[in-house]
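Usage

Read records sequentially. Each one opens with the input sequence:
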Amino acid sequence: MSKVFIFTASTGAGHNLAAQSLKESLDDAGFETEVYDAFKESNVTLDRLITKGYQQMVVNVPKLYEQMYNQFNNMNRFQQGIFQVLTKVMNPEIVPLIRAGNPDLIITTHPFVTNVLGTLKEHNAFDVPVLSIVTDYKIHTLYLKKMIDAYVVGSDYTKQTMIDKGIAPEIIYPYGIPIRQTFLKNNRLDPKEETDIAGTILLMAGSLGSKQMEKAFSSLLKVREKIRIIVVCGNNAKIEKEIRSLNKRDASENKIVEIYGFANNISELMDLSDAIISKPGGLTSTEAIVKNIPMIIPFYYPGQEEENADYLVDGGMAIKLNKIKDLTSMVDFLFENKYIIKRMSENMSEEAAKRSMSKTIELCQDLIKTNIEKTIEKSAGE
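and closes with the structure output:
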């Protein structure tokens, strides 16, 4: 039985969900799989600094996060020095873990971790193939390390952005960002089962929630049509409380409102929905694509989510709004012209058809097989 180590990091839920989705599929395929949070494994202080710092920055000072994102996307000597320090801090814990566990393959779902593992492998700290899962639709420079053996990316567009940055096309595989198997099931209602409502909108903003959700919810309450609004607030109890208060104050008879905090049944809620209003995180976007449910994007964190939004809009799978208050007229327009929603859904279906978890599993098997053959050849040469 082949052993696989998956390294993730808790800056947002997407990287961890991708790791767990991979574990789920690899376990089903007969692999022995372990998932590790790289920063928690290496240094408690480092983990708090990076994960908590990330959460505080993207929520409270997004412009500063955007500046840092862009600076690290154009790595100069200073940024490279930061990652050399990061590698030295993680080395004493990560390398012994790898050597003791002796995995046949290492997978990483986070750009920081990809960078660190690529650097460690470059310094001969271990000799195990490394597969990097790119969890957004435009590549960030941190992912790019010459000792990474292969990349699985979300689309042909992502692959091209990597080729443009000098990565060999033969090690880039556009098999799709891994998502949970429950999202592969389709439980959408037949048209005959639908009620007299014009449609259903799912409003959410990732695991952290978003201050912009209140404005979005207020805009949806002003839509002319009778609609169902499903709101998922994530782990943000303050946002949930304020949205419940808004609903109580501004509720009308032609709005059916359901409000949740953190929800484990997002797949089922998507199946009930005609469109999703959300930040375009890599995992959320992929789940929507697989479900063929068009996205309306009135808010996003700068950096990778802005780039994801551009990818979705260019592919005819999403509509990006400049102002949240425009949600009211946009939703009215879409429900008056449902052929637009249908066409966006068809575009998503075409994109979803290109993804393949089975091919990702085959790639894992091939990487392990190739490494074993190299080891045998090396031993024979000695």
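Summary fields computed downstream for this record:
- The longest strand covers residues 3-8.
- The first helix runs from residue 14 to 28.
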